[in-house]
Amino acid sequence: MKQVPDPHTSVLLLVRHGATKINLENPPRLQGREPDVPLSPTGWEQARQTARFLAPWPVAAVYSSPLLRARQTAQVIAQPHGLPVQVEEALAECDLGQWAGKTWPEIMEQDGEYYRRFLESPDEIGYRGGENLRQVLQRTAPAVERIGRNHQGQVVVVVAHNIVLRAYFCHLLGLPLKQWRAITQDNCGVNVVRWQVRKTKLVTLNAVFHLQPGEKPDATGPEPAASRPEREASQDDR
Predict the structure, then answer these.
(1) From 45, 88, 93, 131, the catalytic residue
(2) What CATH number should be reported for the domain holding residue 67?
(3) Is 215 a catalytic residue?
């Protein structure tokens, strides 16, 4: 995979951004598009470790979501290759609407019935006042496919977000969007996608072996059993 692919194939290295302070909070607040915060010190170190890991790859281009945490991660990854970061608006994180900046316990208390409907059908029932997963996929998948098509015979890095990547990988794996929480995306996890005209295939999911022990953030820590269902749901917005 570290070699240049054949002229009819693109290798896309899809990376989740490094950790922000919000990602490390307990309980985590929903981040989405707002607040648009920078990387934390842990996030910067994760980005540097990812850049070292990807430095030997023949990367021809680096794309990023317009959000700050993604752009900062992409800039660190792009530096060893001497490449600019190309911003792709369609890669922005899900619009979380009225839930942005809140914790799941707050949402359950303030908006419990809608919250339950969202968990049952996230592809149709969106974040309150924001997007649903189908809308996220409808803007994300064409953008990633376009990048693959435009870089045949090349390796490309794409830095995006948790919800965006999980929805897209459900699509590639043929899973219903309601199963998106079964897909893990750690901060600075690397996913390898092979793009070809007739088939786009997920080759590697959430590789994190390049991150040194102790640098992988744990935003939750130990928790009582009663909170675990809410904790599972909260994974998609950290």
Answers:
(1) 93
(2) 3.40.50.1240
(3) no
